[in-house]
Amino acid sequence: MSARRERTARWWSGVLVLVQLDLRQRLRTTRWKVGAAAAFAVISLVVLGSLYVMVGAGSLAYADWAENLYVITGAIVVFVGLVLAPTLTATSINGDRKDAVLAVVQATPVSAWQIAVGKLLGGWASCLALVAVASPYLVWGIVSAPYGIGPGLLGVVVLCLVFLCWCGVGLGFSALTARPAGSAVLTQAAVFTVLLGLPAIFGLLLQPVSQDHRVVRAEYAYDPGASADAAPTCRDVEVTRSFAHTERIWWLLAPHPFLLIPDVVAAHDNPDHWSYRDTRPPTFASSAADALSDARTGPWIDDSTCADQTGGAWYSTDPDRVPSPYAEQRAHDTAAIGDSWYIGLAMNAVFGALGLAAAARRLRVPAGRLPRGVRIA
Fold it and tell me: What does the alpha-carbon distance between residue 41 and residue 47 come to, in Å, rounded to a whole number?
């Protein structure tokens, strides 16, 4: 056991040396200072701009805006990070190969996996600087949000892990392509495929997964000879309606960072049945988590009947009253809130693992057959 521990420690010590080397190469330039300042300026502009628009120039109370600060800050950090994280590693291998630096590292007694993991962690450490830059607003948002400190911190951890996964994707493209510009373009194309492409595919598949069902619904008929204030006659009829079975394709939305990260905290949000007197409305995180949960649980195959209309039960959203069909449908649609983010994170981890494995495979020495235009030293 001691020999195994010694080999593991020696393996990770080599990785840490490569991480330090990668970070020193990045810190030699002043671009990281300009980038950090620009990121803080953008985040500050969005946060303070939303404060002015919603509270200063709008009619929203400060408390309502403050409860959504965590979501606002998280959204801008996710967007900037998904642009930045894979780009930091998208040129780390082919860029070093172009500068004749990679061959020197490969000549040392380190394995291909050590080089790949070292570059992955180096790029991730650089990306975490964005989270550090946004930390004042993230702390402000965690304190002001209704989720609690634990779920708020868990959301930040998940955010950092998503960045790690996409650093792995960028590393894979850097190893598979000869030119840094090509790997950067392919990496950003992969990012926007997840952000825009998968939701578009989800929308295109709604019609193929739709299915007709027979449901009973209430229909009203007015007696022409009755008085104007007479109540209409209600009768239940069976009709055919089409429902999209999104539970078959919901996984297309699972890896979307703008859906999985809100799902981490939405289960601890303010309840959605509220009045202006006693409780506060849910934050923006619930809207994103509701969309993911609604897609995962599938359609509510039911409709209102004549029995549901008595006493205005259909319009009741008060949990203390007799459960209404609306409340039952709402409970069905939100049943998966908080239960999908780890699936999306696992899918992102698979993306990153594939990129890391591709990089380690391409870094093996002797290299064997190389793509056209790839230089050794």
Answer: 10
CA dihedral 170, 176, 178, 182 (to 10 degrees): -50
Contact 36, 139 (CB under 8 A): no
Residue 82, amino acid: L
- Residue that wins the pLDDT comparison between 296 and 321: 296
Place of tokens 């950067």: 184
**31: Cβ–Cβ under 8 A, 6 or more apart, which residues?**
none
Contact predicate 87/188, CB 8 Å:
yes
Looking at this protein, which amino acid is placed at residue 126?
S
- Lowest mean per-residue pLDDT among 6-10, 157-161, 313-317: 313-317
24 exposure class (CB count in 10 Å sphere: 0-12, 13-18, 19+)? exposed
Neighbouring-strand partners of residue 211: 243
If one counts every other C-beta atom within 10 angstroms of the C-beta of residue 5, the result is 9
Report how far residue 65's alpha carbon sits from residue 51's, in angstroms, rounded to the nearest whole number.
Answer: 7
**In the predicted model, is pLDDT for residue 307 greater than 90?**
no
pLDDT band at 210 (very low <50, low <70, confident <90, very high): very high
Q: Which of 118, 152, 145 is CA-nearest to residue 21?
A: 118
**CA distances (Å), 312 to each of 218, 233, 315, 316, in order?**
14, 16, 6, 7
Per residue in 217-250, pLDDT tens? 888 877 776 666 667 778 888 888 889 999 999 9
Alpha helix stretches (DSSP H) within the chain = 2-27, 31-51, 62-67, 69-90, 92-98, 102-106, 112-133, 135-144, 149-176, 180-192, 198-204, 257-266, 284-297, 306-309, 325-333, 341-362
Verify cis geometry, omega within 30 degrees of 0, for the bond prior to 281: no
The predicted structure's pLDDT at residue 84: 81
Three-state secondary-structure class, residue 251:
helix
Tens digits of residue pLDDT in 361-372? 888 766 666 666
pTM: 0.87
